[in-house]
Fold:
Amino acid sequence: MLSKELASKSVEELAPLIENKSVSPVEVTRAVLDQAQATQEQVNSYMEIYREDALEEAEKAETEINNGIYRGMYHGIPMAIKDIIYMKDKVTTMSSKIHKDFVSDYDATVVSKLKEAGVVFTGKLSLHEYAWGITNNNPHYGAVRNPWNLDKIPGGSSGGSGAAIAADATVASLGTDTAGSIRIPSSACGTVGLKQTFGRVSKHGVYPLAWTLDHVGPMTKTVKDAAGLLQIIAGFDKNDPTTVDVPVDNYMEQITGDVKDLVIGVNEDYFFNRVDPGIEQLVRDGIQKLVDQGAKVQEVKIPALQYAEWAELVTSLSEASTIHHSDLQTRPQDFGNDIRMLFELGELPSAVDYLQAQQVRRQLKQDFQKAFEQVDVLIAPTLPVLPNDIGSDFADLNGEKVDLIDNIIRFMGPENLTGLPALSVPCGFSEGLPVGMQIIGPAFKEGRILNAGYAFEKSNPMQGKRPEILEKI
Structure:
C-alpha cells in the first residue's frame, strides 16, 4: 500500500489491518512520520517530531502483535499529542517561551494509558501559547496553518492537533478544551473532536489553563476513532481530585447508528442566533439528515444562556491569571502580547464577580438539566463564523466585522461551564472551508452523542474531499 494512502486512513480502518498483520505498525508509523515531515514547512503543526523513538516503539508493537499479543484498536497506531500534556523525559513547552525547556519527570495519566494501549508517539503538536487563544498564531514558534487554506487559522488552542489530523500528519491526537479548544480546531479543520464530561478523563500531568473548565479529549478522523480513544483514557484517577468515580461505558457498543426516536433539542434564541448563513444551513441540513433516519426535533429554552458568555469569561480569566500570576509579576515580557493582555485583564474581576459567575454557572446547569428532561441531545453549530485570515482579530458575520474571540467561543463556553459532553463532527463546506456541527448531551452520556454523530457521519457530509495541499506533497 502506498505510504500516502496509509497515512490517510483512520484508526478504525488501520486497526483491523494491523491486527491481521496485513500492514505493520512500522509501515504505518513511517508513512505518518514522512507525511508529518513533508507538511511541516507549510502547516507547522508539530513542535517536535520523535522519528527515532517512534520507529522503535512501532517495532516493539509489531513484535508484540506477531507474538499474538494484541492490545486493541490503538495498538501500533502512530499518534502525536498537544504539547501541554507531559511525557516523561520529553520537553513540554506549552508552546511558550517561559516553559521552552521544561522536562517532566513523569507521564500524564492519559499518556500512561495510551502507552498501555500500545500507541506509538510520533511527537508533540503546537498550540496557542499556554492554550489561551483560538488562532494558534504563536509569537514564539510561528503560526499553524489550516490545511484547507494555508492563509486561514486552524482554530485553537489545539490548532496543531486539528491541522495535523487534517494533513494526515497524525492519525489521531489528544487536545484540551477550556472554552472550545478541542471543538474549535475540529470544526475549522474538518475533523472530529470530543470534549467529554468534566471528571470523565484525568487531567493529571496536563498543564492547567483554568482548573474548573479544563478537559482533555480525543481529536480524530472519525467518530468511532474518538470513541475508541475515549475508551482508553476515561476513568477515575486518584491523582486528579476532579475525576469522578463513575463506571466507564463501552462506547463502541453504544455506536449502533440507530437514531430512531432520538429527540433532538434545538435552542433557537442562543445557538442559532447571529450565525453565518452558510454554516446555519449546513447544520440545519445535518439535523434533517438525522430526522430522515427517525429522529425527532423539539425546541428548548435555556434562559441562563444569556449570561453564559460573561460567566465563562470571568471564570476563565480569573483562574488563568491566578495560575500565571507570579510569572506575570516577574517576567511579563516573556508572554506573547495577546495572552499577556488577557492575563492582565484577568487580574481585574473581583471575588464578587467570580462568585456571581459561579451562581450563573449553577443556574445554567439546572437549565440544561431541565432541557435534557425533554430531549436526548442538543444540536447547534460548533462555530457561528468561518475561520478567518491568520493575523486578523476579526471574523465576518453576515457582512459585518465582529470580534473573533467573542464569536468563536460563543457556542463553546456553555459546555465548559456546565461540564457537559459535546462532540463536533464535520458537516460539510462553506466557501471551501469545513464546518462543524455540535452535539451536546447530558453528563456521562458520551455514548449517546457519539452514536448521533456516527449516524450523521454515515450520510457522508464531507463527500470524501481532502485538502488540496495533500495532492501536491
Observations:
- Residues 3-472 form a domain with the Amidase signature (AS) enzymes fold (CATH 3.90.1300.10).
